[in-house]
Amino acid sequence: MPIDNDIALRPRFKIKLNTDNQSVLRDFEALKTTQSNFIVTRLDNHVFIKFPKEKQHFWSPQLHLEIDEIDENSSLLHGLFGPNPTVWTMFMFFHFIVAGLFIAFGIWAYTNSSLDKSYAMQVSFMLLMIIIWISLYFAGSIGKASSKDEMRALNDFMNSVIENAKAP
Protein backbone atom coordinates (compact mmCIF):
# COMPACT_ATOMS: atom_id res chain seq x y z
CA MET A 1 0.00 0.00 0.00
CA PRO A 2 1.75 3.19 -1.12
CA ILE A 3 1.71 5.93 1.51
CA ASP A 4 4.02 8.19 -0.49
CA ASN A 5 1.30 9.71 -2.72
CA ASP A 6 2.18 13.41 -2.90
CA ILE A 7 -1.27 14.56 -4.04
CA ALA A 8 -3.71 12.87 -1.65
CA LEU A 9 -3.67 14.30 1.84
CA ARG A 10 -5.85 11.39 2.99
CA PRO A 11 -4.56 8.22 1.26
CA ARG A 12 -7.11 5.47 0.56
CA PHE A 13 -6.66 1.80 -0.28
CA LYS A 14 -8.61 -1.43 -0.85
CA ILE A 15 -7.62 -4.99 0.00
CA LYS A 16 -9.56 -8.12 -0.91
CA LEU A 17 -9.47 -10.61 1.96
CA ASN A 18 -10.03 -14.34 1.60
CA THR A 19 -11.90 -14.59 4.87
CA ASP A 20 -15.30 -13.45 6.05
CA ASN A 21 -15.61 -9.94 7.43
CA GLN A 22 -16.93 -10.99 10.85
CA SER A 23 -13.80 -12.98 11.71
CA VAL A 24 -11.56 -10.04 10.77
CA LEU A 25 -13.76 -7.68 12.78
CA ARG A 26 -13.57 -10.07 15.76
CA ASP A 27 -9.76 -10.12 15.47
CA PHE A 28 -9.63 -6.32 15.65
CA GLU A 29 -12.15 -6.34 18.51
CA ALA A 30 -10.00 -8.81 20.46
CA LEU A 31 -6.98 -6.52 20.22
CA LYS A 32 -8.70 -3.76 22.20
CA THR A 33 -7.59 -5.33 25.46
CA THR A 34 -4.56 -7.42 24.50
CA GLN A 35 -2.29 -4.62 23.26
CA SER A 36 -1.63 -1.02 24.33
CA ASN A 37 0.22 0.49 21.35
CA PHE A 38 -2.99 1.52 19.58
CA ILE A 39 -6.56 2.37 20.46
CA VAL A 40 -8.87 0.13 18.45
CA THR A 41 -12.52 1.11 18.21
CA ARG A 42 -15.16 -0.87 16.36
CA LEU A 43 -18.57 0.32 15.24
CA ASP A 44 -20.53 -2.17 13.12
CA ASN A 45 -18.19 -3.01 10.20
CA HIS A 46 -15.96 0.02 10.80
CA VAL A 47 -12.69 -0.13 12.71
CA PHE A 48 -10.80 2.97 13.85
CA ILE A 49 -7.16 2.60 14.84
CA LYS A 50 -5.33 5.51 16.45
CA PHE A 51 -2.52 6.22 18.84
CA PRO A 52 -3.07 6.64 22.60
CA LYS A 53 -3.44 10.25 23.80
CA GLU A 54 0.08 10.34 25.28
CA LYS A 55 1.60 9.43 21.89
CA GLN A 56 -0.57 11.80 19.84
CA HIS A 57 0.42 15.19 18.51
CA PHE A 58 -1.43 17.70 16.31
CA TRP A 59 -0.67 15.84 13.07
CA SER A 60 -1.14 12.29 14.39
CA PRO A 61 -2.92 10.13 11.84
CA GLN A 62 -5.59 7.55 12.39
CA LEU A 63 -6.65 4.65 10.22
CA HIS A 64 -10.30 4.07 9.38
CA LEU A 65 -11.13 0.62 8.05
CA GLU A 66 -14.43 -0.53 6.61
CA ILE A 67 -14.64 -4.29 6.17
CA ASP A 68 -17.54 -5.26 3.89
CA GLU A 69 -18.70 -8.79 3.18
CA ILE A 70 -18.47 -9.91 -0.45
CA ASP A 71 -19.66 -13.45 0.23
CA GLU A 72 -19.31 -15.91 3.09
CA ASN A 73 -15.63 -16.61 2.29
CA SER A 74 -14.33 -13.20 1.25
CA SER A 75 -14.52 -9.56 2.20
CA LEU A 76 -13.27 -6.20 1.00
CA LEU A 77 -11.32 -3.90 3.28
CA HIS A 78 -11.47 -0.16 2.51
CA GLY A 79 -8.85 1.89 4.35
CA LEU A 80 -8.44 5.62 4.84
CA PHE A 81 -5.53 7.35 6.53
CA GLY A 82 -6.34 10.77 7.87
CA PRO A 83 -5.70 13.21 10.66
CA ASN A 84 -7.86 13.52 13.72
CA PRO A 85 -11.39 14.40 12.50
CA THR A 86 -11.26 17.69 14.44
CA VAL A 87 -8.07 18.73 12.64
CA TRP A 88 -9.52 17.67 9.27
CA THR A 89 -12.73 19.64 9.91
CA MET A 90 -10.69 22.71 10.86
CA PHE A 91 -8.67 22.45 7.63
CA MET A 92 -11.82 22.05 5.54
CA PHE A 93 -13.38 25.05 7.31
CA PHE A 94 -10.33 27.17 6.48
CA HIS A 95 -10.47 26.04 2.85
CA PHE A 96 -14.18 26.89 2.68
CA ILE A 97 -13.59 30.37 4.15
CA VAL A 98 -10.72 31.05 1.73
CA ALA A 99 -12.81 29.87 -1.25
CA GLY A 100 -15.79 31.96 -0.10
CA LEU A 101 -13.65 35.07 0.28
CA PHE A 102 -12.05 34.46 -3.12
CA ILE A 103 -15.50 34.32 -4.74
CA ALA A 104 -16.69 37.38 -2.80
CA PHE A 105 -13.65 39.42 -3.85
CA GLY A 106 -14.16 38.22 -7.43
CA ILE A 107 -17.77 39.44 -7.40
CA TRP A 108 -16.69 42.73 -5.85
CA ALA A 109 -13.96 43.14 -8.49
CA TYR A 110 -16.42 42.35 -11.31
CA THR A 111 -18.92 44.86 -9.90
CA ASN A 112 -16.28 47.58 -9.68
CA SER A 113 -15.11 46.72 -13.20
CA SER A 114 -18.69 47.02 -14.50
CA LEU A 115 -19.03 50.41 -12.79
CA ASP A 116 -15.72 51.57 -14.27
CA LYS A 117 -14.16 51.85 -10.80
CA SER A 118 -10.74 50.65 -9.68
CA TYR A 119 -10.66 46.95 -8.79
CA ALA A 120 -6.94 46.53 -8.09
CA MET A 121 -7.52 46.08 -4.35
CA GLN A 122 -10.06 43.28 -4.90
CA VAL A 123 -7.77 41.46 -7.33
CA SER A 124 -4.95 41.80 -4.78
CA PHE A 125 -7.15 40.18 -2.15
CA MET A 126 -8.01 37.39 -4.61
CA LEU A 127 -4.29 36.74 -5.12
CA LEU A 128 -3.85 36.76 -1.33
CA MET A 129 -6.58 34.09 -1.04
CA ILE A 130 -4.72 31.96 -3.60
CA ILE A 131 -1.51 32.31 -1.59
CA ILE A 132 -3.35 31.39 1.63
CA TRP A 133 -4.93 28.35 -0.08
CA ILE A 134 -1.51 27.17 -1.31
CA SER A 135 -0.12 27.70 2.21
CA LEU A 136 -2.93 25.57 3.67
CA TYR A 137 -2.18 22.82 1.17
CA PHE A 138 1.53 22.83 2.00
CA ALA A 139 0.76 22.89 5.75
CA GLY A 140 -1.35 19.76 5.25
CA SER A 141 1.40 18.16 3.16
CA ILE A 142 4.00 18.93 5.83
CA GLY A 143 1.70 17.42 8.46
CA LYS A 144 1.28 14.30 6.36
CA ALA A 145 5.04 14.05 5.76
CA SER A 146 5.76 14.40 9.48
CA SER A 147 3.38 11.51 10.17
CA LYS A 148 4.68 8.96 7.65
CA ASP A 149 6.33 6.81 10.31
CA GLU A 150 3.11 6.76 12.31
CA MET A 151 1.14 5.88 9.16
CA ARG A 152 3.52 2.99 8.53
CA ALA A 153 3.08 1.80 12.13
CA LEU A 154 -0.71 1.86 11.71
CA ASN A 155 -0.38 0.05 8.39
CA ASP A 156 1.95 -2.59 9.87
CA PHE A 157 -0.46 -3.15 12.77
CA MET A 158 -3.38 -3.58 10.36
CA ASN A 159 -1.37 -5.97 8.18
CA SER A 160 -0.40 -8.09 11.20
CA VAL A 161 -4.07 -8.49 12.13
CA ILE A 162 -5.01 -9.34 8.55
CA GLU A 163 -2.19 -11.90 8.26
CA ASN A 164 -3.38 -13.56 11.46
CA ALA A 165 -6.91 -13.68 10.04
CA LYS A 166 -5.63 -15.40 6.88
CA ALA A 167 -3.74 -18.07 8.83
CA PRO A 168 -5.73 -21.27 9.37
Description:
- The longest helix has 30 residues.
- Helix 1 packs across helix 4.
- The chain has 168 residues and is of the alpha+beta class.
- A five-stranded antiparallel β-sheet has the order 1-5-4-3-2.
- The two termini are 24 Å apart.
- The protein is elongated and about 70 Å long.
Molecular shape = elongated
In terms of DSSP E residues, the strand content is 15-25%
Element string (H = helix, E = strand): EHEEEEHHH
Question: Helical stretch count?
Answer: 4
Helix content: 40-55%
- Largest beta sheet: strand ordering: 1-5-4-3-2
Q: Outline the biggest β-sheet.
A: 5 strands, antiparallel
Mean pLDDT, all residues:
86
The counted number of beta strands is 5
Structural class: alpha+beta
Alpha-carbon distance between the two ends: 24 Å
Radius of gyration: 22 Å
Query: Which residues sit in consecutive blocks of at least 5 with pLDDT less than 50?
Result: 1-7
Keywords: Membrane, Transmembrane, Transmembrane helix
Transmembrane segments: 87-111, 123-142
Protein name: GTP-binding protein
Organism: Flavivirga algicola
